[in-house]
Amino acid sequence: MLAWFSLGALVVAMIVSCTTQLNVGVLAIALAWIVGVYIAGLPASDVLAGFPRDLFVTLAGVTLLFAQAQVNGTLDRLAHAAVRLCRGNTGLIPVMFFFLGSVIASAGPGNVSTAAMLGPMAMSVAARAAIPPFLMAIMVGNGAQSGSLSPIAPTGLIVHGLMIKIGLGGHDIYTFVANLTAHAIVAFAGYFLFGGWKLFGTVYAGSPEDDHTRGFKAAHWITVAVIGAVLAFLVVMSLLGKRVEVGMAAFTGAVVLAALRVADHEQSIRRMPWTPILMVCGVSMLVGLLDKTGGLALFTDLLAKFASPGTLTGFVALVTGVISVYSSTSGVVLPAFLPTVPGLVMRLTMPGMAPIDPLSVATSMNVGAHLVDMSPLSTTGAVCIAAIADPAQVRPTYNKLLAWGMSMTIVGAIGCYLFF
User: Fold this and answer.
1) CA-CA distance, 179 to 401, in Å (whole number)?
2) d(CA 244, CA 361)
3) Torsion, CA 119, CA 120, CA 122, CA 125, rounded to 10
4) Residues linked to residue 89 through DSSP beta bridges, in sequence order
């Protein structure tokens, strides 16, 4: 009965995350306290032990460092410089935004921050260059999403921590590349399928509104140098086999930028994505309670009843994709589902049959959950919709992105079934 109570709390949290604006992390912490202390009879310290302190420090440090780079205009100038590289070829502009989104997101800011920064710029350029907003949205959005599982991006750090807990540590590069490849395939397939190839025959000469004349000043070069130094330090420590404290290194870089006064430190702290940070930490705390009370094993048993060894990768990609359309991928879906991987593999492995690869199952969850995030119900898709200047284009683009996001549940399931 206790397992059912804790699982019920998780189900309530997921439903609330899909249907209301309440931060599900706050709700998850409250539910963990009520169920853990007053129903399970656990000491409050045991419940609090489930709060991912290391993850919180890592996410806070990384997001603060790149918030400073965003506040002082460094990331914005990098994006404008990249647009100039297209030299007027209209068809290349969305392609450039895909790669720009992928590179920036992979370098540390992650998918949400990158989409929030590039989305308005990309949609503005699309309007002036007569690029259909749907085509620009799927390119810039999937570009940002392709870098989401970088080992130094916020979502990648979340997934890396979860993978270590389930015995799949050391596969962060594979996970990153698998997700990047999946997003590149669907983005470029959609771009050319829906008419992007026609844009290569047109020329965009630019306009005064593009504001490409702003150059890099000392503050921007210092910001680039500090971020580069932090990344170089992390790479060197990793190559030497040392424990990499990503959050501590990022906080140190943030302190250097603040001390040199090249960014508004207080404004940067306010710009940090506190909502998803609180969300993922709260849900992780609730999932930790499930593990203590048997709710996680019960959740795993329920999933196993609907899957078979041969369809498991496609099934988990479909389920995580459907829920992720309406809920937070990194804050709710993956913290809830990745911990079930060992149990699913154990329950569905049959005597005399080839063993199920747990990495394939986990990768299917990661890819399936992320492919749908171009839906306008998700942050990335919503940012693109909000940046459309022409009111007549908003509803058609919204409908197309909604159809795109929903179709990715099927595309992701089939792709994961075939390749993982």
Assistant:
1) 20
2) 27
3) 170
4) 203
**Residues comprising the chain, all counted:** 420
Span 381-397, pLDDT tens digits: 777 777 676 777 877 88
3-state secondary structure of 362: helix
Closest CA to 382 of 141, 93, 149: 141
Alpha carbons 113 and 409: distance in angstroms, whole number: 24
In whole angstroms, what is the distance from residue 61 CA to residue 198 CA?
43
Q: State whether residue 337 is helix, strand or coil.
A: helix
Q: Give the pLDDT score at 114.
A: 80
- Cβ-in-10-Å burial (0-12, 13-18, 19+) of 311 comes to middle
Specify the range with the lowest mean pLDDT, choosing from 33-37, 53-57, 263-267, 339-343: 53-57
Please tell me whether residue 90 adopts helix, strand or coil conformation: coil
**Does the reported pTM lie above 0.70?**
yes
Residue by residue, DSSP assigns 46-70 as HHHTTS-HHHHHHHHHHHHHHHHHH
Question: What type of residue sits at position 29?
Answer: I
- 3-state DSSP call for residue 203? strand
DSSP 11-28: HHHHHHHHH-SS-HHHHH
Residue 203, phi then psi, degrees to nearest 5:
-125, 135
Is 309 in a helix, a strand, or coil? coil
Tokens of 278: 């609180």
The answer to whether residues 344 and 311 touch, using CB atoms and an 8 Å cutoff, is no
Domains of the chain, by residue range, sit at 2-419
pLDDT digits (tens, 9 = 90+) for 269-325: 888 878 777 877 887 788 788 778 877 777 777 777 777 888 889 989 998 888 787
Amino acid found at 274: W
